[in-house]
Write a structure and sequence with these properties.
By secondary structure, this protein is mainly α. It has helices spanning 11-17, 23-30, 34-41, 49-58, 63-66, and strands spanning 7-9, 67-69. The radius of gyration is 12 Å and the shape is globular.
Length: 76
Amino acid sequence: MPARLPIGNRVKQLREAQNGMTQSELGEAIGVTRQTVAAIEQRRYSPSLETAFRIAKVFNTPIDSVFYWDEGASST
């Protein structure tokens, strides 16, 4: 299994708290595929800065409430 990226996120929790928003619905709202949303949630892909801001905007929350630096994560 590949190492998790050091940028953690609360995307799944925020999405599910938004009336059970699906990955596809979030992807459509921010202009990416469902697969990209899944990869972000699983920390296999770090979104671009623009995409990160779009995600924060969808949830009407500051970007640092969605994404955080995880000192304990191993990156390769």
